[in-house]
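Researcher: We plan to redesign the surface later, but first we want a full-length starting point. Tokens attached.
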């Protein structure tokens, strides 16, 4: 028994060390990644089930490190937040996404919208609103063509400050999406007060929407709730046809997922959009 305990410890140690080394490596190379132009945005289409059209794109960050290869945002966003690099990086993301959207509009895709993920730390910056509005203005975009995706953590950490800022952005026409909806716990109380335009049903509910009754019920309720509050509902991580069928049946507004398209580099997504036109 003693022996196996020791083995288990060795394994644990190995796993922890691997994570630790990986994190150290990410940290080491992340701060030069901006200057070395190693970041890129991919874009995933959001498909409207009412009109059968792509109405928007979500910008998703990619990091191609010469040393580490393609690193998932799941791994480096956390490090970027801990090191506060996310503030600069997040601004870069917004600029790139607006630049591309303005390009698409000039290509005749005039109704296309853009969703951009915003980290809690960005919103907490005192000049966050000023920066967002400046960037949108610079690219001569209608603020209503931009949607900021936030998560519940931002609300839990400092409701008053965030509420105020979001309200002001909303008043300018900017859309606000609540990401990963359903995963947290305080969603409902915030929903009524916040200027939310879109709810994104978390992938974990969509994964087994046709198999697990609980997921079915939750999905159905989120859609109903969105409708009654005039909030658009989008399902994320839709991979299979049976999921799509359920979402259609429940009258979900939009879907996003591999079933329709994976996140794509800008040239590819532009080609896809032009082909659909
Ligand atoms: P998220 O905002 O919830 O984005 C959805 C994630 O699900 C993306 O992962 C997307 O590629 C993936 N996805 C979309 N459809 C499917 C599907 O059908 N099946 C599966 N299995 N996955 C699907 P990704 O691109 O790896 O991003 C992970 C997370 O990293 C994002 O989750 C978001 O929280 C964060 N992130 C990405 N880009 C940015 C950014 O520019 N800024 C900030 N602050 N966070 C970002
Ligand atoms: Ca998102
Ligand atoms: Ca999400
Ligand atoms: Ca997520």
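Model: Full-length starting sequence:
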């Amino acid at each position: 028994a003693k022996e196996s305990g020791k083995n288990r410890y060795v394994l644990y140690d190995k796993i922890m060390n691997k994570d630790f080394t990986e994190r150290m490596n990410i940290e080491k190379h992340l701060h030069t990644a901006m200057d070395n132009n190693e970041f890129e945005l991919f874009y995933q289409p959001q498909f409207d089930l009412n009109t059968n059209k792509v109405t928007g794109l979500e910008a998703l960050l990619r990091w191609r490190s010469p040393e580490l290869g393609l690193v998932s945002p799941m791994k480096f966003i956390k490090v970027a937040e801990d090191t506060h690099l996310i503030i600069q990086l997040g601004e870069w993301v917004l600029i790139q996404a607006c630049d591309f959207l303005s390009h698409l509009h000039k290509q005749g895709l005039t109704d296309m919208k853009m969703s951009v993920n915003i980290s809690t730390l960005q919103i907490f910056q005192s000049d966050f609103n000023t920066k967002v509005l400046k960037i949108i203005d610079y690219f001569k975009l209608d603020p209503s063509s931009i949607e900021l995706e936030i998560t519940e953590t931002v609300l839990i950490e400092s409701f008053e400050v965030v509420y105020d800022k979001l309200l002001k952005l909303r008043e300018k026409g900017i859309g606000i999406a609540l990401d990963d909806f359903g995963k947290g716990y305080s969603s409902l109380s915030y929903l009524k007060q916040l200027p939310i335009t879109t709810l994104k049903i978390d992938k974990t509910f969509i994964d087994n929407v046709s198999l697990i009754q609980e997921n079915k019920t939750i999905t159905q309720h989120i859609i109903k709730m969105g409708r009654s509050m005039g909030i658009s509902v989008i399902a994320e991580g839709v991979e299979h046809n049976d999921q799509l069928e359920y979402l259609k049946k429940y009258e979900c507004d939009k879907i996003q997922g591999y079933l329709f398209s994976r996140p794509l580099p800008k040239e590819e997504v532009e080609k896809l959009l032009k082909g659909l036109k």
